[in-house]
Write a structure and sequence with these properties.
five-stranded antiparallel sheet
């Protein structure tokens, strides 16, 4: 049959043209039809079914199942079940199927079967419609792969990540968020799942007053909110979380979802507390005390530093002390030894010749110690320095 559509007025409604129109419609819509009359065991296929099954002659449903390898295992059982349901109930039924092509390709289709009966209700045959769903199933599979990849990444984040609705109810929680809730004694089923039942077990994110305030602030101002939260785990241990709440807006500019991100900053808070305690002690000592960051840029000095060396804190915060304390007669060997010792052991003890702000030489005895967090990350260097100029001159 010619597949070119004749649209001249005299030919458009002829039977042959109607067949061509149905063939074109079937290809565009990816739908094919078939009939099977029991009386003469006659089977007819539309052109699209030949294209889909890639067969040049029509087959009955039983022949498709028995004489080809298109339907295998559970798919063959499911097709036989569909035919049986239509036969017994004399009603329309449909189901989705996967077929295996000889070259290994996979195709999907949804088949709907209608019973053909006489006036007394006797079953005379089947009328079937097949819709090709391969592209949709492939897109679903691709989406599942992408989702699985993101799920894999999110669940391995050391920080908590949650998605909430406007009422603070969980729509998603990664493994860190679930584990945190478990450790706090409010979640007893630790098996991760995205199901609504699992998320319901998490309860409501707004269990603390600060969280309620954060959600209200985020909803009203439509801006990110940051706050600290202290929580206790089931063992009674306290930790501090830094939480960020971000609004996601819809096309109308209204808050559709809230993204919550939480990081455990207990080690940092403990370090800050220790530094505060040390600062109190350091301010009462006559020796020089200086704190630098991992890049050896000054973050804090005590009052004795200002008195002895002549620099005000505001002048030197953020500067490497070597840039202004060392001078022409400072031993390069000592500078090298300090760097190597800190690199090897995180500490150094020894003397060095430095210079005050007004250019006077001053001998200092240094005790430098590195400070690390619980994960071994370098936080600060703390240097305690004593003026030994008088002793050096006496020597």
């Amino acid at each position: 049959m010619n597949s070119e559509l004749d649209t001249t007025l005299l030919s458009f409604d002829e039977c042959e043209t109607l067949k061509v129109r149905q063939q074109l419609l079937g290809k565009i819509a990816a739908v094919g039809e078939w009939t099977h009359r029991f009386l003469d065991d006659e089977i007819t296929w539309s052109g699209y079914l030949h294209d889909f099954y890639e067969l040049n002659h029509p087959l009955t449903p039983s022949n498709l199942l028995n004489d080809t390898q298109l339907y295998q295992g559970d798919e063959a059982i499911k097709m036989r079940s569909l035919l049986e349901r239509v036969t017994i109930n004399k009603a329309m039924f449909s189901d989705e199927f996967k077929i295996n092509m000889p070259d290994g390709r996979i195709k999907w289709h949804r088949t709907t079967i209608h019973p053909i009966t006489d006036q007394q209700g006797k079953l005379l045959g089947f009328y079937g419609l097949l819709q090709n769903t391969t592209d949709r199933k492939q897109e679903e599979a691709n989406n599942e792969k992408r989702y699985a990849l993101f799920q894999h990444i999110f669940d391995r984040l050391p920080s908590e990540l949650v998605v909430l609705n406007n009422a603070g109810q969980y729509l998603y929680a990664n493994q860190s968020a679930i584990q945190s809730t478990l450790n706090c004694g409010t979640l007893f089923d630790h098996q991760h799942s995205e199901s609504s039942d699992q998320l319901n077990k998490l309860g409501n994110w707004t269990v603390e007053s600060k969280r309620n305030d954060a959600i209200e602030d985020c909803l009203q101002n439509k801006k990110a909110v940051t706050f600290e939260e202290k929580i206790n785990d089931i063992d009674g241990l306290s930790k501090t979380m830094l939480r960020n709440l971000y609004p996601l807006l819809d096309q109308k500019g209204e808050v559709e979802f809230l993204i919550g991100h939480g990081v455990d900053i207990s080690a940092r808070k403990q370090s800050e507390l220790e530094l505060q305690r040390m600062a109190i002690i350091a301010e009462k000592t006559n020796g020089i005390v200086m704190v630098t960051d991992p890049d050896r840029k000054i973050t804090w000095v005590n009052h004795s530093f200002e008195q002895i060396l002549g620099y005000q804190a505001g002048e030197i915060i953020g500067i490497d002390p070597a840039d202004f304390l060392q001078g022409p007669e400072t031993s390069q060997r000592t500078i090298h030894d300090i760097a190597e010792s800190l690199k090897a052991s995180g500490s150094f003890s020894g003397e060095i010749l430095n210079y005050t702000k007004d250019g006077k030489q001053i001998w200092l005895y240094l005790n430098i110690t590195a400070v690390y967090d619980d994960q071994g990350k370098l936080l600060n260097y703390i240097a305690v320095e004593n003026d030994i100029t008088v002793i050096k001159l006496a020597e």
